[in-house]
Amino acid sequence: MPASARHRRLVRSLAVAGTGVAVVALPLFGATAASAATTGTTTTAASATAYPDNLDGWIRESLSVMAQNGIPGSYESIHRNIMRESSGNPFAINNWDSNAAAGTPSKGLLQVIDPTFAAYHVAGTAFDPYDPVANITAACNYAADRYGSIDNVFGAY
After folding, report:
1. Using an 8 Å Cβ cutoff, are 69 and 102 in contact?
2. How many alpha carbons fall within 13 Å on the CB side of residue 79?
3. Could you tell me the end-to-end alpha-carbon distance of the chain, in angstroms, rounded to an integer?
4. CB 57 within 8 A of CB 88
5. Rounded alpha-carbon distances, angstroms, from residue 57 to 30, 54, 60, 70, 96
6. Which residue among 5, 27, 51, 82 is least packed, with the fewest CB closer than 10 Å?
7. Residue ranges in the chain assigned as alpha helix (H)
């Protein structure tokens, strides 16, 4: 995975956790261990849940975002639909169906077209239909609006 994609995942994890701040401890130049040690109060950042950068992690992270936004759906249904739509490839693109012929190919894990992604994008996720968590979350938001839940989707939607 390119470094920029890893960076986006870290930023997305921090954004989803809602910390709003990042704390980095760096040593002071010329300071000894004793003088560099903090005295008094220390500040700690809220720990963000770390998800693996794979299909399981993307689904679990999406479920967390969905729970925060009241979007229904289960791991099993999301996984079932992903395997049917893209076989788990976040960069899958459909260049041969009617949407593609109209100039709007389906993209990503759950094969979302750009207008649907834009309409159902969930704040706190990347605005990128190829981003796995953003794609899953937007598709589940759409499925909830149209079918009540991704749990009710058993074919192309």
Report:
1. no
2. 10
3. 30
4. no
5. 42, 5, 5, 20, 30
6. 27
7. 3-17, 33-36, 55-68, 75-85, 98-101, 114-120, 132-147
Which residue type is seen at 2?
A: P
| CA distance linking residue 94 with residue 11, whole number of Å | 29
Q: What are phi and psi of 150, to 5 degrees?
A: -60, -20
- pTM equals 0.71
Q: How far is CA 26 from the centre of its chain?
A: 30
Report the amino acid identity of residue 1.
M
Tokens 């990128």, residue located: 128
Write down the residue that tokens 């849940």 correspond to.
Answer: 49
Condensed to tens digits (0 to 9), the pLDDT of residues 68-93 reads: 999 999 999 999 999 999 999 999 99
List of residues 6+ apart from 127 with CB closer than 8 A: 121, 134
